[in-house]
Amino acid sequence: MKISYKQALFFGVLAVVINSFTSTFLAMIVKAGMDSSVVTFYRMIGVAAVMIPWSLIQKSNRDNMKEAAPKIWKPFVGYTITKLLGFVLWAEGLRMGASAFSMTTLSNMQPIIIVVFLWLLYREKTSLRSLIGIVVCLAGVTVIGIDNVISFGSPFVLIIIIICCCCFALNNIFGRRARQHLDLAPMIGFSYLFAGIMAGVYAAMQGASFAIPADAIWPLIGVTFGCTLIGQSMSMWVLKYVKNVTMSLIGLLSPFCTAVSAYFMLGEVPEKIVFLGAFIMIIGLVIYQRAENKAKAK
Predict the structure, then answer these.
(1) What band does 243 get if pLDDT is binned at 50, 70 and 90?
(2) Which end of the chain has fewer CB atoms at under 10 Å, N or C?
(3) Which pTM does this prediction carry?
(4) What letter would DSSP give residue 252?
């Protein structure tokens, strides 16, 4: 199906709005008493249950999997493990008391972390203007981090959030490598299946309960099939028609969408200093994205 650029922008914004509910739904689930690894198990198995049959029905996907298998196993394993760790740590950070707004805002650090990992792994360089944007962004992260440390009396929650962002940044890098050879549906379907099995085994070893509390049923459905299946898949699909830079800028709407949903669904009201940190962070990301866009144009 071909769509116009304006239609692609609409779906891009819609994907960001849908994905912005992730932290709010997860906060509701962990408050209901579900273990973080159990939440991840249901979330990943639910998506795999939809994507794997879809992958196997289409002959083109079956042929693609056979052809790609020898080439992508390393990035595929990396993609699977980092996605699993990212999902578990995201839920764990919320369980330990991080606000939905802070989690979503700090997740926007991923472009910055990706730059660092690309330099460490592949020695890819970035421009001076991009580095200025990174410094400004990190200043905003520091402001938000200070508020979280003061609120919880410990930097441990912030450390979990940063590790979570690192996992998602690596997941982005591994995912791009795997997508060079493997179609989207089988990559998501089978990686989520294996990650879900690992999450389930870990939860069982810890003696966690797999029972779903009544208060967690509908937010679990929302985060699994709304945010993870529809929202994230839509974001990847839109990238066929919209540049990465454009989607990254649209993604800056997510913290404020989360603030609205968290206010009405959780009663969360972020402190003024958190909004200040988010504002500084967004300025840094805009500077960085504009610098990267100019560099690519040259």
Answers:
(1) low
(2) N
(3) 0.80
(4) G
